[in-house]
Design brief:
369 residues, Aspartate Aminotransferase, domain 1, Aspartate Aminotransferase, domain 2, 4-stranded antiparallel β-sheet, 13 helices, globular
């Protein structure tokens, strides 16, 4: 079969976290004992208000939704202080990322990102024959903003930033985001704030009033607990949004998405409960991991996950990943999930105390082996 795009012949795809069911079946661990710490999902589940409204919306499944998800755009606009024409909704942030790559960079033009980064940036760019440009982070995963700005040459069209960063969880100061937006000129800066709730900051939405070349992405998958519904949104200049609407699939957002998203935005109690627990457990697990010799938590995460460095040269990420699976613990092996990290790191979700204890107890056992 002839393919119009040879880049699609790659074997590299996104590597999702394993399911609790598959680990329970493979390793004989009771399902309730499996600690799923590899997908950054909400430990408290979906927003109860969203569940109620999605259930009610089942009776509207026979009716086509607004093709732009207008009721949800209006709700997002009211929640964050913008107008609906500045907002676009997608089946998760990942769909919007693919539109951004197709809309704002031509084949062989540059897409700038940190290494490591959320893999959908380079997977989307590679699949569309855009040229990925990487700037390595520092030895302690500092952002090296001057180096990042120096990489913005005439070939660059899109500049990705994740804040808090994935997979480190580190937060870039807004002053640095501003510097990058200024240096970008007319190039598009994408500020991906999928995990911003867990930083307990307001994020970069206010910068949209200063920079027409900025789009801010957010998701309903994390703090709102709607990962399985697949819903995200972007806020940018109206001209930017109109351009993406021209290629957006006509009905990518259904009645259930619209109902669930509107309700979730009203459910501040669910978000607050989730963020409070994540922040408490993030500090708790950091203290416990500080007593180990073979493993080190990379400091500074303000997200719902963190990086663990494998210090012992006799161990590597794949071996530790497999050893944890046998104990019913799912994490991310960064050698499979993130370019540039090699076999020295695991990404681990922050979750309920029972799961954090199970994880640290397992690493403690491996620490002495």
């Amino acid at each position: 079969m002839h393919l119009s795009n040879p880049a699609l012949l790659t074997d590299e795809t996104y590597v999702p976290g394993l399911s609790r069911e598959s680990v329970a079946e493979t390793y004989g661990v009771p399902l309730d004992d499996v600690a799923k710490l590899g997908s950054a999902e909400n430990p408290f589940g979906p927003s109860p208000m969203a569940v109620e409204e999605v259930s009610a919306a089942l009776l509207r499944m026979d009716i086509y939704p607004s093709w732009t998800a207008e009721p949800l755009r209006e709700k997002i606009a009211a929640k964050y202080g913008f107008t609906p024409e500045r907002i676009i909704c997608g089946a998760g942030e990942t769909e919007i990322i693919s539109w951004i790559v197709r809309t704002f960079a031509a084949p062989d033009e540059g897409v700038l990102m940190y290494e490591p980064c959320f893999p959908m940036y380079h997977l989307s760019a590679d699949s569309e024959n855009r040229r990925c440009v990487y700037v390595p982070m520092g030895s302690e995963f500092d952002f090296r903003v001057d180096d990042y700005i120096s990489a913005i040459d005439d070939s660059i069209r899109i500049i990705f930033l994740t804040n808090p960063h994935s997979p480190t969880g580190k937060l870039m100061p807004l002053e640095d985001v501003c510097c990058i937006c200024r240096a970008a000129g007319k190039r598009l800066v994408v500020l991906d704030e999928a995990y911003i709730h867990f930083s307990r900051t307001k994020g970069g939405l206010t910068l949209l009033n200063e920079f027409d070349n900025l789009i801010v992405l957010r998701t309903f998958s994390k703090a709102f607990g709607l990962a399985g519904l697949r819903l995200g949104f972007g806020i940018g200049h109206p001209d930017m949004i109109r351009a993406m609407l021209a290629l957006k699939p006509t009905w990518n957002i259904g009645q259930l998405h619209i109902a669930g998203g509107i309700a979730a935005l009203n459910d501040d109690a669910h978000v607050d409960r989730t963020v409070d627990m994540i922040c408490e457990m993030r500090d708790y697990v950091a203290e416990r991991l500080g007593h180990l010799n073979s493993f080190r938590m990379i400091p500074g995460s303000l997200s719902n996950f963190f990086l663990v460095e494998i210090v012992d040269p006799a161990k590597d990420s794949t071996g530790v990943f497999q050893a944890l699976l046998k104990r019913g613990i799912i994490v991310k092996d960064c050698s499979l999930s993130f370019r540039g990290l090699g076999k020295r790191y695991l990404r681990v979700d922050v979750s309920l105390k029972k799961h954090m204890d199970r994880f640290v107890d397992a690493l403690t056992e491996l620490d002495g082996s």
